[in-house]
Inverse folding.
């Protein structure tokens, strides 16, 4: 009987150790929606008995959020022009996770890909004289969002470019049971004007390469025309 009781106590201790949510997860989850709590759990997956959120599940959550936004329609509404007026070249869009120190949580998935709690979508439209940019950034773990609309005359644009840099971003270390900082590489598109740059999160692929080359060709045409 004594041995049985000891085994029960040991089992209870192990269960609590491996299934209890980290304190920071409990604190961040207060007042959050079910979806936001699930997103937080993805970044704080910890212990063998916890209900884990997989990379695939988190990707599906982000994709569903993206589709619900209908960002291109939002962009057109904000710009206030008909799409027929923006046919100098085809509209271009960039999107990708945002990695910012102390503002987002990050995690390296089993596929080696870094994901974060913030995602950014940018649309660029091209009229005869101007470039219009709309950007929407949302957070999966909270209600925070940010919208920006900018417009630039071709003559004022110095360049369209891409950049890769490294940023320290918070992630949950399951072994040390605390949030640490990790260097994460990020890719961004930038619209350059004298004294300033407007950045857009992006994933480098064949589409973005072709789109940027087309934008550069159009800018050269406008500058030399």
């Amino acid at each position: 009987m004594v041995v049985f009781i000891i085994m029960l106590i040991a089992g209870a201790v192990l269960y609590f150790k491996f299934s209890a949510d980290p304190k920071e997860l409990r604190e961040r989850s207060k007042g959050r929606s079910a979806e936001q709590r699930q997103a937080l759990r993805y970044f704080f997956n910890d212990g063998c008995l916890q209900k884990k959120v997989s990379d695939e599940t988190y990707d599906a959550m982000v994709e569903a959020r993206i589709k619900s936004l209908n960002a291109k329609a939002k962009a057109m509404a904000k710009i206030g022009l008909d799409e027929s007026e923006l046919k100098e070249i085809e509209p271009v869009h960039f999107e990708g996770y945002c990695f910012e120190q102390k503002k987002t949580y990050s995690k390296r998935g089993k596929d080696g890909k870094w994901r974060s709690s913030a995602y950014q979508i940018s649309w660029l439209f091209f009229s005869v004289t101007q470039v219009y940019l709309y950007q929407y950034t949302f957070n999966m773990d909270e209600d925070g969002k940010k919208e920006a609309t900018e417009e630039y005359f071709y003559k004022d644009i110095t360049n369209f470019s891409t950049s890769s840099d490294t940023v320290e971003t918070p992630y949950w270390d399951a072994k040390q049971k605390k949030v640490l900082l990790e260097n994460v590489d990020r890719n961004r598109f930038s619209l350059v004007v004298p004294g300033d740059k407007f950045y857009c999160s992006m994933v480098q692929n064949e589409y973005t390469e072709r789109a940027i080359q087309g934008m550069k060709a159009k800018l050269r045409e406008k500058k030399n025309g």
